[in-house]
Amino acid sequence: MIPIIIKWVKDNQEQVILAVAIVAISLVSFNIGRIYTISSMNKAVEYTSAELSLTKDSGPASTLNNEEKTKINPSPALDLRVIVSKKSTTKKYHFLWCPGAKQMNEANKIYFASEQEAQTAGYSLAGNCRM
After folding, report:
1. Among the four 36, 84, 104, 115, which has the fewest Cβ within 10 Å?
2. What is the pLDDT of residue 55?
3. What is the pLDDT of residue 56?
4. CA 119, CA 126: separation in Å to the nearest integer?
5. By C-alpha distance, which of 121, 128, 127, 52 is closest to 111?
6. How many C-beta atoms lie closer than 10 Å to residue 94's C-beta?
């Protein structure tokens, strides 16, 4: 069986090399996309936390007028609250933009101010929900 495969590969060497190159390029491209997405999400979170610290009512940012604050904070801050369902048996929490959060009935939602609060209450992040 192996000699037959080796003969077939030798006979079709150009096609095999082309197929391997296409698969390799596809894998590299996919992973570059993943890395870019993860790094851009991390930058958004860092930017948002910087925005939050700049807009607090204490410290140097409090001396800025509204026009200056708008220049520093041009976009609204990311809402980092998390929610859980009163009826949940899995003890999972969701960010507001996650599919699970959007499917919950409004009457069953319990809001936490942060991930840390939900984790302290014994909840863990849902598998289909990412920052």
Report:
1. 36
2. 47
3. 46
4. 12
5. 121
6. 24
In degrees, rounded to 5, the angle at the alpha carbon of residue 129 between the alpha carbons of residues 103 and 90 is: 70
Domain boundaries, the chain: 2-72, 82-125
pLDDT at 127: 85
Q: Is 93 helix (H, G, I), strand (E, B) or coil?
A: strand
- Partnered with residue 3 across adjacent β-strands are none
Specify the DSSP element, H or E, that contains 100: helix 99-103
- pLDDT, tens digit, 9 for 90 and up, residues 25-68: 999 999 888 887 777 665 555 555 545 554 444 445 455 555 55
Residue 110 makes CB contacts below 8 A (sequence gap 6+) with: 83, 84, 85, 86
Give the type of residue at 108. N
**Orientation angle between helical segments 2-11 and 13-54, nearest 10 degrees:** 80
- State the alpha helices, DSSP H only, in the chain: 2-11, 13-54, 66-72, 99-103, 115-120
